[in-house]
Amino acid sequence: MPSSPSPSSRTTSNIRLSQISSQITPMAATAFSNDVVPQAPEDPLFGLMAAYRRDTDPNKVDLGIGAYRDDTAKPWVLPVVRKADEIIRNDPNLNHEYLPIAGLADFTSASQKLVLGADSPAIKEKRVTSLQTISGTGALHLGALFLSKFYRTNSKRVVYFSDPTWANHFQVFSNVNLSYLTYPYFSKKTRGLDFDGFINALQNAAEGSIIVLHACAHNPTGVDPTQEQWKGIAKVMKEKKLFPFIDTAYQGFASGDLDQDGWAIRYFVEQGFELVIAQSYAKNFGLYGERAGCFHFVTAPSSDAEATKTRVASQLAILQRSEISNPPIYGARVASTVLNNPELFAEWKENLCTMSGRIIDMRKALRSKLEELGTPGTWNHITDQIGMFSFTGLSEKQVMYLRDEFHVYMTKNGRISMAGLNTKNVEYFAKAVDKAVREA
């Protein structure tokens, strides 16, 4: 057996270790101190949701949620989605293998047709490449990352967002080192579109600037350009060689008509723009948690358009591979099952009419009740606006009054989700608004 070290040798070793320890400079507790990683502010919307959940008042109203609710204030699983679930579950060939990097091919090809139109010349001329993404946010990020890496102009690259816009736009684009400005969009005076301010900003933007456009149901205002105004916007953008980045999260959900809600995108493509599109299936399929989305790159008509598309597709695949490797499959399967089945597609359009129709009814009811109460101000903007959200025109002080006195939760800028209203609470909310306008 090996002999144990003698007591004297152990003592010598301990002395040496003690000497070494005394010479070691203590390490800092963390490399991520407060001046390096400051505490980030809480996301306003998620903070609002948390405050609503903590509230125990039986009359509380959630108008901050960006998701559809039925007339009982419950999430609604579309009947057509339930049917697709059943078809997928009973498929004997169902497996859980990886998708290709670009995603489920049946899903991306159907998504092209949905957003661009089945007869789109861009599709026929093979000028479109599409990748399945992590819902609309993932599509925005993939597009922003691609532009950050490859888009070159004669001037500094600048992204323009509408004022206001979806708050996450700023983070997505700034995280890939794209600087941004804003263009006037919402008129506080008319509570409609500031078209003149919008056009003036486009005319003064540097050539090649990236303009983020909401295809329909503008978030957060609910204010959309008319078709004639879209034509004017496209005209100026073409003259100034501006690059459209179109965000479409509400096709079919806004008006109930897929073609009407996709009109602006198709017009820009018809005008020969090179552009990108971020497409989400969260709202119009109710697939919020499944994160089904698609990113489309459409190159301009030219003799080498197909070659350009192929090169772009190769680089997009590398970016996608490095970030998520392969997109998730289930939500894409659900959407693809519906989009590629004529019978289910027809039923989906009925489901869209159900959702958009209920939202429209709530707009009419809210406006009617405010006008019946004689609430100071004009309220036609409630029905003039479209989609899930409405900019009420309420001030931050009035918003906080509504929260404190009536347990009504909405964002501080006065934006409400119309989906949070129903036949049981719309009168309560109207009376609360009336009191807030008069007293706050």
Describe the overall structure.
Belongs to the class-I pyridoxal-phosphate-dependent aminotransferase family. It catalyses: L-aspartate + 2-oxoglutarate = oxaloacetate + L-glutamate. Its EC number is 2.6.1.1. There is one protein chain. By secondary structure, the protein is of the alpha/beta class. It folds into two domains: about 45-80 and about 355-440, Aspartate Aminotransferase, domain 1 (Alpha-Beta Complex), CATH 3.90.1150.10; about 100-340, Aspartate Aminotransferase, domain 2 (3-Layer(aba) Sandwich), CATH 3.40.640. The protein is built from 18 helices and 13 strands. The protein has helices at about 5-25, 45-55, 80-90, 105-115, 120-125, 135-150, 170-175, 195-205, 225-240, 260, 265-270, 280-285, 305-325, 330-340, 340-375, 380-385, 395-405, 425-440, and strands spanning about 60, 130-135, 160-165, 180-185, 185, 190-195, 210-215, 245-250, 275-280, 290-300, 390, 410, 415. Helix 4 crosses helix 14, helix 8 packs parallel to helix 9 and helix 17 (about 395-405) crosses helix 18. The chain is globular, with a radius of gyration of 27 Å.
Task: Give me some keywords for this one.
Aspartate Aminotransferase, domain 2; PyrdxlP-dep_Trfase; EC 2.6.1.1; Aspartate Aminotransferase, domain 1; 440 residues; 2 domains; 18 helices; two-stranded parallel ribbon; PyrdxlP-dep_Trfase_small; transferase
Helix content: 40-55%
Describe the largest sheet.
7 strands, mixed
Low confidence ranges: none
Number of domains: 2
Number of strands: 13
The helix tally amounts to: 18
Mean pLDDT: 92
* Rounded Rg: 27 Å
CATH architecture of the largest domain: 3-Layer(aba) Sandwich
Strand content: 5-15%
The named CATH superfamily of the largest domain: Type I PLP-dependent aspartate aminotransferase-like (Major domain)
**Termini Cα gap:** 89 Å
Class by helix and strand content? alpha/beta
CATH topology of the largest domain: Aspartate Aminotransferase, domain 2
Strands in their spatial order, largest beta sheet: 2-10-9-8-7-3-4
- Oligomeric state: single chain
Name of the level-1 CATH class of the largest domain: Alpha Beta
Protein name: Aspartate aminotransferase
Pfam families: Aminotran_1_2
InterPro entries: Aminotransferase_I/II_large (IPR004839), Asp_trans (IPR000796), NHTrfase_class1_PyrdxlP-BS (IPR004838), PyrdxlP-dep_Trfase (IPR015424), PyrdxlP-dep_Trfase_major (IPR015421), PyrdxlP-dep_Trfase_small (IPR015422)
EC number: 2.6.1.1
